[in-house]
Specification:
Chemotaxis Receptor Methyltransferase Cher, domain 1, 7-stranded mixed β-sheet, 2 domains, 3-stranded antiparallel β-sheet, globular, alpha/beta
Length: about 270
């Protein structure tokens, strides 16, 4: 079922207003395919009828399902591994400086691979006993947050994790005849998952956050949304705090008190 161009623009405008995601011309097939899932689930026969339902449904629950369908969630453990090497060195410096209170943020955590990777690195450097550290992990999608909180991954997703870390931080479980791996409770309890719309600052948490991973999400935002998000992140970072963005993302056009240290790694002045 093709979508009328004017109706497509209405959906794009609604998506941008509510999520900050800027869909461009040429994404009609993508939007159509994602909307089709909701049409089938609700028994609605047309795009126009669905748009009216979205706009009139009072609880906002369907709009959450709609954004879950639209959002792209691509992730893996130790993605862009250079960042985690830098993060490890940064943690060691903080420890040597006598820091005893650590807070970090995975801003677009998807199904949890990024914050759990962060947690493994933090545990290696700082340990799990007698040290105060937490990771806030957020996403727009309630579906991926639910998966992330359970911390259960199939064997294929575990291939990027070194064997020693897999044995240390995961329990192997069987579901039917299929093998899965679950993050151990002592690591899982260090990560707090919450739903946050990055396009709608200010955010509820307070800083300082010594490091923020906001990777591979700003590519979906327009300049105004990216600028507002980076400004909010900078307000949460202490001096010398670190911001990681995606390797394909650049902040060079965004006015912010940040200096570039390495590709996609920035430090607050």
């Amino acid at each position: 079922m093709e979508i009328d161009p004017k109706l497509f623009q209405k959906f794009c405008k609604l998506i941008h207003q509510r999520s900050g995601i800027a869909l461009k011309k040429g994404k009609e097939a993508l939007v159509c395919a994602r909307i089709a899932k909701r049409l089938r689930a609700l028994g609605i026969s047309s795009h126009e009828e669905y748009l009216q339902y979205l706009l009139s449904e009072p609880s906002g629950e369907e709009f959450t399902h709609f954004l879950d369908a639209i959002a792209t969630n691509v992730t893996r453990f130790f993605r862009e591994s250079e960042h985690f090497d830098f993060f490890r060195d940064y943690l060691m410096k903080l420890r040597e400086q006598g820091c005893r209170h650590f807070r970090f943020w995975s801003a677009a955590c998807s199904t949890g691979e990024e914050p759990y990777t962060m947690a493994m690195v933090v545990s290696e450097v700082l340990g799990l006993k007698n040290v105060d550290w937490k990771i806030l992990a957020t996403d727009l999608s309630t579906q991926v947050l639910e998966k992330a909180e359970h911390g259960v991954f199939d064997a294929q997703r575990m291939t990027e994790i070194p064997l020693n870390l897999r044995q240390r931080f995961f329990d192997e479980i069987l579901v039917g005849n299929e093998r899965f791996f679950q993050v151990k409770p002592q690591l899982r309890q260090r990560v707090v998952f919450r739903r946050i719309n990055l396009a709608l600052p200010p955010f509820p948490m307070k800083g300082p956050l010594q490091a923020v991973f906001c990777r591979n999400v700003m590519i979906y935002f327009d300049v105004a949304t990216r600028t507002g998000l980076v400004s909010e992140i900078c307000s949460l970072l202490p001096p010398n705090g670190i911001l990681f963005v995606g390797m394909s993302e650049s902040l060079s056009a965004i006015p912010a008190p940040l200096i570039s240290l390495e590709p996609a790694v920035y430090q607050k002045r």
